Predict the 3D structure of the following.
Amino acid sequence: MKGGSFFMAKKWGLRVRNWMAQKMDLPQDVMMDLPRITMIGQIHIYIENHRGLITFTDKELRLLLKQGQLQIKGNSFVIKTILPEEILLEGKIDQVLYINENPGGTK
Amino acid sequence: MKNQWIEFLSGKVTVRVSGRGIERFLNVLIRNGLIIWNVKRHGTETVTFTMRLADALKIRKYARERECSITFLKRAGMPFLFKRLLKNSGFIGGAILFLLIIMFLSNVIWGIEIKGAKPATEYQIRKELDKMGVKIGKVQFFVDNVEGIQRNLTNNIGNLTWVGVELKGTTYHLQVVEKKEPEKPEQLAPRNLVAKKKAVISSMFVETGQKKVDINDHVQPGQVLVSGVIGKEGQTQQVAAVGEVWGETWYRSHVELPLETNFFVFNGQEKQKHSIILGNLEIPIWGFGEPEFKEYETDKNVKSIHFLKWELPISIGNETLRAREEITRTYTQKEAEKIAIDLAKNKIKNEVDEEAIIKDEKILHKELKNGKVILDIHFKIIENIAVGQPIPKETPE
């Protein structure tokens, strides 16, 4: 029961925040800990609020988010800058995919 | 984004990491505040990235905890540049030394050219210059400035009327005018000697020509003293009359001399100040503070540094502050009169020829007014009153 109540509390908090963000006209990314992605054409992508690297090759970048993962596909990737919560990727970007928590996936 | 140049200044290193779980390794680095950029993948097990030099030393610690091996590939930035610079310091030292030598040599006297002097005078000038330290191979800073050299030369060498000293680059050019130039033989045209002013003839010396006046004669200006027409009547011949006719002339002179005069004298105390002048900025390097004396005169001397033929905007300034004192000179009336007479004599001497003699002086009028001695003096002077005058051509031959 203890875990359940904790889960409930967490959900409750989330709802409050969501409500506040909507009613008080605050940016969603700040309130909700969502990633903020800026793309410049196909050549640059700038992601704020990520939680770390999972995979990096010259054709794929996978980032851990607060919820789920972000997958970026393309080719000749170079990480121009990487900071604890920000990343700037350069290359030719073909796809940006959100991968939601798959059942049985590691977190 | 980071500023590339700041990273360049502090130095940056390119690192190659190979092994497994590189992404996790990168995450660790980032969370620990190490800044990395330009991350590139090479194959399946290798990644390269760039990081700060200061952070590069810490990276081993994190690598040891994982199964990654690290190689440092490229070092760039100021610290490495500086290291290389030190390694090649010989070259830089050489270059600086080269510039310094050129600068030094640009400030050395390389030549002294003397123009317009006879060999004997030139030798004398060279000797005098040697004494002053103006020699080939000396540094210009330790030598008097151009005006000083000029003054010294004219003071110390008797037979120089004027010497122009000019510093062109590293060579001193001296333009000399000597007092006695070799006389050109005069080609005299037939002439008379006439009186140039009113006088009483006191003595005569006639070389050529016919004497027309006698001793103790009273002559008027323009009167013929010695005629250039000689020979018997009808067989006359025209020559240039040559000779000296000394006559007594009279001058009146008016002098005023105050009994009390104020003037400044240097009492010998002085203070030196040195400075480096960069454009308009003057940086004192020696001799600070106000001098301990109140009244002083400043003598400023600026020497510019040359580089080859150019003048650099840097110059070395030297200021001499000389203490002066105000002195009041007081004469008694008798002294003042004596000095006034001397003054009058000097004034007269400037007006007449060098050979003239003051025969007699007589005070006509003497007055003491407003603390001044006022004298009117009458001088009797014996001088050469003869001047040449061409004989008017009345009878063309």
About this structure: DSSP finds two helices and six strands in chain A. Chain A touches chain B through 16 residues (CB under 8 Å). The radius of gyration of chain A is 16 Å. The longest helix of chain A spans residues 2-23.
